[in-house]
Amino acid sequence: MSIQLNQPVAVQTLLNSLQRGTLSHAYLLQGANLEEQMRVVLFFLKKLLCGKEACEGCKVCKQISNMHHPDLICVKTDAATLKIEQVRELQKALSYCNVESDFKMVVIEKADTLTIQAQNALLKSIEEPEQQTIFFLLSSSSNNMLPTVRSRCQLLTLKPVGRSGEENIRLTQGEYSLATAYLYEHYYKGLEAASHEYIHNTVQHLIVLIEGMLSSQVEGLIHVSKAQGLWPSKSEQIAALSTMQALLQEVMYQVLGLQSLCRLYKDYPSIETIARENELPVIKKAMIGVEEAQRMMRSNTTGQMALEYAVLRLQDA
Ligand SMILES: [Zn+2]
């Protein structure tokens, strides 16, 4: 099971900041499993340095896997605590760090066992980092860290690791998906029943509608009113909302980097565009809005009114 699927939120947060050029100088990972934390960090470092999307085969990827990259320093201990001497050694090593890449990378295992003196000493390095130094503090709980250290790190919380990868996927879906498999089923049943062209046109219209809803209240309302003529009957409107939910779910998977769960984006590249341009909370809000619209329609509200309500709810934040 790939670490991207196991820890989609932590991995995607790192990849997003890499893509946007907003890397933090220090990340504080918290999670019960040290190996899992290490996997997240090493995967990210390969993405950062490999040049071939973490290919696993090149010299750099192998160096990172073996923790033998010249610019990668790992601090660890078998003792109960990490002491100030080890932080001083780290700082010395950093100043001599032979920069083969553009980055100096520090991984501190069990950072929550750093003594208070050690944390205070470390604080200086995190506060005034040399250029392009990235710290990864691995901890079982960020609460064990000094608030001054915590506040200078971006926190990444890892999901608990289940017994098997399968379970983890289900957990992820259960956690983040508001739509259900039923919606996909609905879409694909529809595909068999109606002509492919009809479904294709419907999906195109729905994508335009989603884009409008996400862009602004006015745009959203204009698109809802345009959509009115497309699906005159109530059953068509309910089917359209279900398909809309399936599309939003796919956008959400894209945002989370869960491409393997996506089924529609290859046929409809706009899904990727929507995912790139919107944050996860907005997508979730849209999904909740559409779900509410579906509920309203079942209790006799017209499709247009239900969707207008969804648009207003989405944009009132
Ligand atoms: Zn590589």
UniProtKB/TrEMBL annotation:
Biological process (GO), any one: DNA-templated DNA replication
Alphabetic keyword roster: Plasmid
Domain of life of the source: Bacteria
Pfam families, per database record: DNA_pol3_delta2
Hydrolase among keywords: no
Keyword Chloroplast: no
Name this protein carries in UniProt: DNA polymerase III subunit delta
Source organism of this protein record: Alkalihalophilus pseudofirmus (strain ATCC BAA-2126 / JCM 17055 / OF4) (Bacillus pseudofirmus)
Name of encoding gene: holB
